Amino acid sequence: MVTVNAIKKGIVIDHIKAGYGIKIFKYLGLENADFTVALIMNAPSNKLGKKDIIKIENAIDMDYIVLGLIDPNLTINIIEEEVIKEKIKLKLPERVEDIIKCKNPRCVTSIERDIIHVFYLVDEYSGEYKCQFCDEIYFHSEV
After folding, report:
1. Is residue 46 within 8 Å of 87, Cβ to Cβ?
2. Beta pairing partners, 77
3. Which residue intervals of the chain bear CATH 3.30.70.140?
4. What CATH fold (topology level) applies to the domain 9-89?
5. GO terms for molecular function, please (predicted)?
């Protein structure tokens, strides 16, 4: 069994769907971190079967909207003095700006410059999003 020590102060991203940890790790740019970071993949989980976990011994800025889009079921734990001070549960965002890019060649966002790509959540169960301008459908798993 692998042992990863508790962190004194920082962030633990828990309940990440197995295999998505590396995607979040890269999105946060943690491969270039000059502080302690642990990526644990395929850890046993009673709730998920397997899960990924990221432990960051530092405070960093994170976009919860993007993280919720990547994996809406993850939990962010803020750690101080080796104790969870705050627990943040994410969900799929209702509105997403300039994260999903519309690929419809006839969409105004493909033709005009400087138009913000806006998508709205249509179906939370399937993770379906619709472009504000052309109604093109995307799924959060495509991000």
Report:
1. no
2. 12, 87
3. 9-89
4. Alpha-Beta Plaits (3.30.70)
5. metal ion binding; transferase activity
Q: pTM (2 decimals)?
A: 0.84
Where in the sequence of the chain do the CATH 2.30.30 domains occur? 95-142
Q: What separation, in Å, do the N-terminal and C-terminal C-alpha atoms of the chain show?
A: 33
Q: Does domain 95-142 have CATH number 2.30.30?
A: yes
Q: What is the pLDDT of residues 81-139, one digit of tens each?
A: 999 999 999 999 999 999 889 999 999 998 888 899 999 999 999 999 999 999 999 98
Which of 106, 123, 129 lies closest to 138, judged by CA?
129
Longest Cα–Cα distance of the chain, Å, equals 54
